[in-house]
Write a structure and sequence with these properties.
Elements: E1 2-8, H1 23-35, E2 40-44, H2 57-72, E3 78-82, H3 85-93, E4 98-101, H4 108-117, E5 121-124, H5 141-159, E6 165-168, H6 180-192, E7 205-207, H7 214-225, E8 230-233, H8 236-245
Parallel strand pairs: 1-2, 1-8, 2-3, 3-4, 4-5, 5-6, 7-8
Helix pairs in contact: 1-2, 2-3, 3-4, 6-7
């Protein structure tokens, strides 16, 4: 599994270990990630939880500009995690190589950015227009995801970008006000049925569980057993250790 390590330039990200608010801190974080099992870096400048303050694209880019340059220097794939096309375009122009589309590519503006750069696209399922406006999926979430991806990939076809799409079930975006027990049941069902997403013939990308609880550890094992092509994690040494324990390591 190709593993992206998380660097957050947003000061209100939930995982405080991932926060780097300047280029020096981002370089240190990047060194840790790459020295402990990551293959690439995922960078975001806008928190997506209910607690995060939404900032303008200009402020988001101010947070990211020097950090993008610092992380590009590592010479590994760098994804930009944003739902703002203005930020995404500037990050790609500065050397980022992958779009981690926090809006689920639900606007033509984001598709046009991807088309202009021919960049790979992590396409997450969202049950709303952006991560902060999602609704609880009350029916079978896998069925809803299949419908969502079918619709979005039709748009990708219009831009000639289907082959650049990487499918993400969007579990990392589940609204933070869901009771954890409901999130756990939801995520376990989705992770146990990731094979259904293989119908599109595209690689899978999963935001890997990182909290230290028995349920999160169970979910991490379920995901890894599905052998997604890409993962996104905060603590790579644990992810690689669990992979090895499951006989999935290199």
């Amino acid at each position: 599994m190709f593993l992206y390590g998380v660097v957050n330039a947003s000061p209100d990200s939930l995982n405080v270990d991932s926060i780097a608010v300047d280029a020096t801190a981002a370089t240190s974080r990047g060194e840790y990630l790459l020295n402990n099992g990551c293959d690439g870096i995922d960078l975001g400048g806008q928190g997506s939880t209910d607690n995060a303050t939404v900032v303008s694209w200009q402020e988001e880019w101010d947070r990211l500009e020097s950090i993008v340059k610092a992380l590009v220097a590592f010479g590994v794939p760098l994804s930009i995690d944003s739902w703002k096309p203005e930020v995404t375009r500037r990050a790609l122009a500065a050397g980022a190589t992958v779009i981690n589309a926090a809006d689920g590519m639900q606007t033509d503006e984001m598709w046009q950015v991807a088309a202009d750069f021919r960049a790979p696209i992590v396409l997450p399922f969202l049950s709303g227009p952006n991560p902060r406006e999602m609704e609880m999926v009350r029916t079978d979430p896998v069925k809803v995801m299949l419908e969502f991806f079918e619709t979005q990939l039709a748009v990708a076809d219009r831009f000639g970008l289907r082959e650049l799409c990487i499918l993400d079930p969007g579990t990392g975006f589940a609204p933070s006000n869901w009771p954890w027990e409901e999130r756990y049941v939801y995520q376990k069902h989705v992770y146990s049925n990731l094979s259904a997403l293989r119908t599109f013939g595209l690689p899978l990308y999963i935001a890997l569980p990182w909290k230290e609880t028995a349920q999160h550890d169970e979910l991490l094992e379920i995901v890894l057993k599905q052998r997604p092509e890409f993962g996104r994690g905060h603590y790579p040494e644990k992810i690689r250790r669990v992979e090895r324990s499951l006989g999935l390591g290199d």
